[in-house]
Amino acid sequence: MKYRFISDSHTHSECSFDGNDSVIMMSEQASGIGLYSITVTDHCECNEYFEKNFRDDIARSVMQISKARAMYLDKLRVYTGIELGQPTQDVKAAEEALSLANYDFVLGSLHNLKNEQDFYFLEYTPDTAEQLLDRYCEELLELAEQNLFDSLAHLDYPLRYIIGTAGIKPDTKKYREKVDAILEVLVRNQKAIEINTSGLRQIIGRTLPDIGIIRRFRELGGKYVTLGSDAHRWGDIGSGIENGLEMLLECGFTHFTIYEKREPKMLPIL
């Protein structure tokens, strides 16, 4: 491999409602392809937390991660993470979820707007797409200001479906000021932004967010960037991470970030 410390900081095991494989299988794949570390960030959708009892999913995830860490102690760093979805929509749920384990890493995500389904399930027209993006930016800013996470996941998540599935290409220039406001909060709070490489495997064909936003994050003083495949099966572990590292180099970064005990660790790209 060209890079020494390839790390995948966004993965989902069978302990996520949409995951497929055990943490052991995922760790075996990560070790086999030579990754430096893997962080398992199983889902916790705060807006559904009490209804669907995410406590049990979190407990199973943490237990599997603990076993994998012991098994791969000399081969791979296995970190305990969580993807905290919609934490502003139920603050009590978010705070309880964060109290259930000693996490190494917390991703902050927004998969659906208040009183809406996941963007995956919505139907789009050019007009509704713009309206939803406006609302998304506003709610994502609220999430950033809430400041419960370490890295903000897939910042332009809705475009995975607006562009990739519906084939609608909104004028993203309209959202520059709103995106800047989100990035400025991340910089001020010394939080990370994620390069999510799942889009490279999907119709949209690019990372989430794209290189323009990562470059802008650096211009505004951003320091921490995590990389994640968003794998939901063992075969996608590490997918696209090298592409993300190349993007970071192109943007002028010399290091990327992983988290251990909620503290950022800067690793050299080269």
Search tags:
270 residues; TIM Barrel; 9 strands; 37% helix; globular
Structure description:
This protein is an alpha/beta fold and 270 residues long. It has one domain: Metal-dependent hydrolases (TIM Barrel, Alpha-Beta Barrel). The protein is built from nine helices and nine strands. The strands form two sheets. Strands 1-2-3-4-5-6-7 form a seven-stranded parallel beta sheet. Strand 3, helix 4 and strand 4 form a beta-alpha-beta unit. Helix 5 runs parallel beside helix 7. The longest helix has 21 residues.
Outline:
The chain has helices at residues 23-32, 49-52, 54-71, 91-99, 126-146, 159-162, 176-188, 211-219, 241-251, and strands at residues 7-11, 37-45, 77-85, 105-109, 151-152, 192-196, 225-228, 255-260, 263-268.
| Intertermini distance | 11 Å
CATH architecture: Alpha-Beta Barrel
The helix fraction, in percent, is 25-40%
Helix/strand/pairing category: alpha/beta
CATH superfamily: Metal-dependent hydrolases
H/I helix tally: 9
| Major beta-sheet overview | 7 strands, parallel
- The global form is globular
- Poorly predicted ranges: none
**Proportion of β residues?**
15-25%
Radius of gyration: 17 Å
CATH topology (level 3) name:
TIM Barrel
Please list the strands of the largest sheet in the order they lie side by side.
1-2-3-4-5-6-7
Name of the CATH class: Alpha Beta
- How many strands in all? 9
The number of domains: 1
Task: Spell out the helices and strands N to C.
Answer: EHEHHEHEHEHHEHEHEE
